[in-house]
Amino acid sequence: MPKPILDVQDLTVHFYTYAGVVKAIEGVSFKIFEGETFALVGETGCGKTVTSRALTRLIESPGRIVRGRVLYYRTESSSPIDLLKIPEEELREIRGKEIAYIFQDPTASLDPLYTNGYQVSEAMYYHRTVSKIKEGIMRAVDLFKKVLVPNPEKNVETFPHELSGGMRQRVVISAAISNNPKIVIADEPTTALDVTVQAQILELLRKLKDEYNSTVILITHNMGVVAEMADRVAVMYAGKIVELGDIFSVFEKPYHPYTRALLRAVPDPLKKIERLESIPGTVPNLINPPPGCRFHPRCPYATDKCKLKEPPVVEIENGHYVACWLYEKLEGKEKTSMQQPVEVQ
Ligand SMILES: Nc1ncnc2c1ncn2[C@@H]1O[C@H](COP(=O)(O)OP(=O)(O)OP(=O)(O)O)[C@@H](O)[C@H]1O
Ligand SMILES: [Mg+2]
């Protein structure tokens, strides 16, 4: 039986802008199991980054976590703690140490004024993994070896601008793993990089995950990357999860029309894409999201009901969930009588 490490319930984040309240994510719920790679996938603006940042309350003004719980099973024996409730000082001990982030743009994650080694050392010093910066720099040499930064002894002394984008991301990754985190959240870790470097970084992440036995939350808009890396996937659309399941089940039998469209638009995993152009229409404005199912304006199957009422989440197969009125009749029914997923043109 897989053990949950995070249990996210009803997570809701709004941004209070001059133009209106942006309902960035609404009622997002999912569990993360220990040791798995869990992918969050969806088009640009669907709420992937906001979801991942909200897990450790990294939402800045004008944003606010309106409601929800993020239960973290910190130790085997004790009951979980709610990361949205604990004092900020306690959370700071967890963030970066037990739950570490790798962001999309390595340049933005590194300070141009400090050496690469110093920055990795500082991540450890902050969390008292080392007691002196110098000791941390020595450890950074070993970490650089692990993440295949060439000339580690020399490169702990160089500055970020002296390295390529791919190498900078390796420095960021070594800082992220330096405190041996339980959970690594990688938000589009390869999007800013060249195609060939992307594949190398993904390979590195996979290797490190096995070696450190960590749990990974991988954010991407690339279904090809999901197929290569993930055990389970949650598909987000306009601030909500519309489908969730293990990747075999979701890739073999995608139920939600949006998931099916995403899969049809599956790009070459090595190709850099900014958005999935082949799905007609665009993600709705989240100040006034469409009523009912938020996907209905783009859905070829939409009925009047879809326009008025939000579909409930139905567990359609073991651990495979979908929020779509097309499968309403299956709720609570014999799973064996399950109809085939819809065909989307
Ligand atoms: N600081 C902010 N102020 C107002 N709205 C915001 C802010 N940050 C995010 N949003 C809104 O929240 C929604 C979700 O954004 P988010 O960055 O999570 O999307 P994403 O899925 O990560 O997209 P991408 O693939 O482009 O990274 C978007 O509608 C976005 O406009
Ligand atoms: Mg994002």
What topology does this entry show?
Blueprint (H helix, E strand, L loop, with lengths): L3 E14 L2 E14 L3 E5 L6 H7 L8 E10 L8 E2 L5 H7 L4 E4 L3 H4 L6 H11 L6 H14 L5 H4 L9 H13 L5 E5 L7 H18 L2 E6 L2 H7 L2 E6 L2 E7 H6 L4 H8 L39 H5 L4 E5 L2 E4 L22
Parallel strand pairs: 3-8, 3-9, 6-7, 7-8
Antiparallel strand pairs: 1-2, 1-4, 4-5, 9-10, 10-12, 11-12
Helix pairs in contact: 4-5, 4-7, 5-7, 7-8
The chain binds adenosine-5'-triphosphate and magnesium ion (MG).
What does this structure look like?
It is a single chain. The protein is of the alpha/beta class. The chain has a domain at 99-180: P-loop containing nucleotide triphosphate hydrolases (Rossmann fold, 3-Layer(aba) Sandwich), CATH 3.40.50. The chain contains 12 helices and 12 strands. It has helices at residues 48-54, 88-94, 106-109, 116-126, 133-146, 152-155, 165-177, 195-212, 223-229, 247-252, 257-264, 304-308; strands at 4-17, 20-33, 37-41, 63-72, 81-82, 99-102, 183-187, 215-220, 232-237, 240-246, 313-317, 320-323. The chain has an 8-stranded mixed beta sheet with strand order 6-7-8-3-9-10-12-11, sandwiched between helices. Strands 2-1-4-5 form a 4-stranded antiparallel beta sheet, with helices on one face. β7 (183-187), α8 (195-212) and β8 form a beta-alpha-beta unit. α4 (116-126) packs parallel to α7 (165-177), α5 packs across α7 and α7 packs parallel to α8. It is globular and about 65 Å long. The protein starts with a strand and ends in a 22-residue tail after the last strand. The model is unreliable at 272-277 and 334-338 (pLDDT under 50). The site of adenosine-5'-triphosphate (ATP) has 16 residues, from β1, β2 and α1.
